[in-house]
Amino acid sequence: MYGSRECVVKMITCMT
Fold this sequence. Notes:
Blueprint: H1 4-9, H2 11-15
């Protein structure tokens, strides 16, 4: 969903 950089900021959202 999110990009790599945003994935780091929203790790929880990135994994779910």
